[in-house]
Amino acid sequence: MRIEAIRSEFPILQTQIHNHPLIYLDNAATTQKPQCVLDALNHYYTAINANVHRSVYYLSEAATKAFEEARQSVQHFINAKEARECIFVKGTTEAINLVAHSFGEHFLKKGDEILISAMEHHSNIVPWQLLCQRKELKLQVIPINEQGELELENLELYFNKKTKLLAIIHASNALGTLNPIADIIKKAHAHNIPVLVDGAQSAAHLKIDVQALDCDFFTFSGHKTYGPTGIGVLYGKSHWLEAMPPYQGGGDMILKVSFDHTTYNEIPFKFEAGTPAIAEAIALGRALEYLQKLDWAFISQHEARLLQYATEALSSIPRLKIIGQAKEKIGVISFTLEGIHPHDIGSITDQFGIAIRTGHHCAMPIMDFFKIPATTRVSFGIYNTCEEIDQLIKALDEVRRLFKLY
Amino acid sequence: MIQDLYQELIIDHGTHPRNFCVLENANGKAEGFNPLCGDKVQLYLKIENQKIEKASFTGAGCAISMASASLMTEALIGKTTQEALVLSALFKSLLTIDSAESAELGKLLALAGVKSFPARVKCATLAWHTLQAAIHCNIQTVSTELINS
């Protein structure tokens, strides 16, 4: 079976936790890594470790070649027009901070507005709040409804001449909602508003085509796309990136430095000061190639089936409420179980080897909207199975038995 | 074992907490908050001549944090503030140091199992950190009153 073959490529899935086989259902937090990604990390350090873009000797050239090939893998993965539009950063958080600093400091002035939504992860709220404080800007927020969908009927009311950027989440890590991003981008562009898409939760689950979306910026994290931590991508249209000032100063981002004046390097290097996470970038390239080889129709079909199966199974549990009932969802289910706090659920299911997330999911405004302190969340990846969901339901039965909810 | 963490007494106090109300004339009050998980405890103490006459709490959180707060308020009533601080220190040792099971802790020993779940120690100690703040608040209020008079 295909899923068995996929599972065999992820060594960590052989692990036993508290004498149970690991059931990993926290893929929205981070995904596990296939052997080819682990091999790529190992190969860099054992065979071609050298700094990139600096020297003329063999190893440095080999490292540079592998690093730049990884950039091309990123380009193909998101269908960017050019590889130089793909900047390596630490992750989605750094990508958004980079835009907030560089784009924000350069293009925005007192009184301008930045538009986000009530569904954002803290990493697409706080960088903008900080920018607003620095530059005396206003942060506007598109609301959500009880289903956990964006209220888009009156979207145009939020667009005005002062709106200089829309920064919006593609898929919600806390609710699972998949936003109609192409439509939103089209409407924003009709008002000449550039759009940044936070793709942290979408990039590993559906085919991303930044040219078709026509987004101005797209961000994602390596470790949520079956790659390593410490590496991620900021995609930006070249005309924006060329007009934006550097985010950090240092080596690799310059062409010429004297004490009077520095000439910056061209993109993408202008935004990659210092020695990058070379091994991680190369391994991320491998992860993205791996995902593309699995093919998107298979991935989305498999994850949609898991979502449907788990939604039905969880819905049959008395007093369980699914938070986030959008029509379009990725494989993320947040829920509450009346009378039992998520942390108690998480500690008990852990005893059965089941890894699920409990808490506010770095989205406190969403918790406030639904008037709950926290949720329990399961989120799926390519290696999860319906049998694992059955085990989860059994463990939740145990939680309810322990709390005398039978 | 998960049953070591969720003993009958913990489930009982966690789901049906005792002394769970606002104390109107409290003269020692403090609020505890764990930003990591959102657990909240408001603690109310009525202190007369350095003795805790009444103790109650409100809040929301997991069974461990609620049970710990509930059992704590039961244990506090009748103790001097000094004895309460000693108990607080004993309780914290119980959760962090092996073989720190002092008999003085009584029913609170039911929370000893938390030690094996490091991610949950903060849930159990939240009420106790709040206790220290409430006693401190009482001392400060008393000293302010003395200065004012």
Number of domains of chain A: 2
Strand composition percent of chain A: 15-25%
Helix content of chain A: 25-40%
How do the helices and strands follow one another from N- to C-terminus of chain A? HEEEHHEHEHEEHEHEEHEEHHEEHEEHEH
Short description:
The complex is a heterodimer of chains A (406) and B (149). By secondary structure, chain A is of the alpha/beta class.
Description:
- The complex is a heterodimer of chains A (406) and B (149).
- Chain A is α/β, with parallel strands linked by helices and 406 residues long.
- Chain A has 13 helices and 17 strands.
- Chain A has a seven-stranded mixed β-sheet, sandwiched between helices.
- In chain A, a hairpin with a 4-residue loop joins strand 11 and strand 12.
- In chain B, strand 1 (28-34) and strand 2 (39-48) form a beta hairpin.
- The mean pLDDT of chain B is 90.
- With 149 residues, chain B is an alpha+beta fold.
- In chain B, helix 2 packs across helix 3 and helix 4 (81-96) packs antiparallel against helix 5 (121-148).
- Chain B has one domain (2-143): Sufe protein. Chain: A.
- A three-stranded antiparallel β-sheet of chain B has the order 1-2-3, with helices on one face.
- Classes of the chains: A alpha/beta (406), B alpha+beta (149).
- The A-B interface holds A 339-344, 347-348, 351, 358-360, 367, 373-374, 402-404 and B 1-3, 5-6, 11, 14-15, 36-40, 60-64, 117, 119-120, 123.
List the helices and strands and how they pair.
The complex is a heterodimer of chains A (406) and B (149).
Chain A: H1 2-7, E1 16-17, E2 20-21, E3 23-24, H2 35-48, H3 58-78, E4 86-89, H4 92-107, E5 113-117, H5 126-135, E6 138-142, E7 163-169, H6 181-190, E8 195-198, H7 210-213, E9 217-221, E10 232-236, H8 238-243, E11 254-257, E12 262-264, H9 278-294, H10 296-315, E13 320-323, E14 332-337, H11 342-350, E15 354-355, E16 357-359, H12 364-369, E17 375-379, H13 386-402
Parallel strand pairs in A: 3-15, 5-6, 5-7, 7-8, 8-9
Antiparallel strand pairs in A: 1-2, 4-10, 9-10, 11-12, 13-14, 14-17, 16-17
Helix pairs in contact in A: 2-9, 3-9, 4-5, 10-13, 11-13
Chain B: H1 2-5, H2 8-15, E1 28-34, E2 39-48, E3 51-60, H3 63-76, H4 81-96, H5 121-148
Antiparallel strand pairs in B: 1-2, 2-3
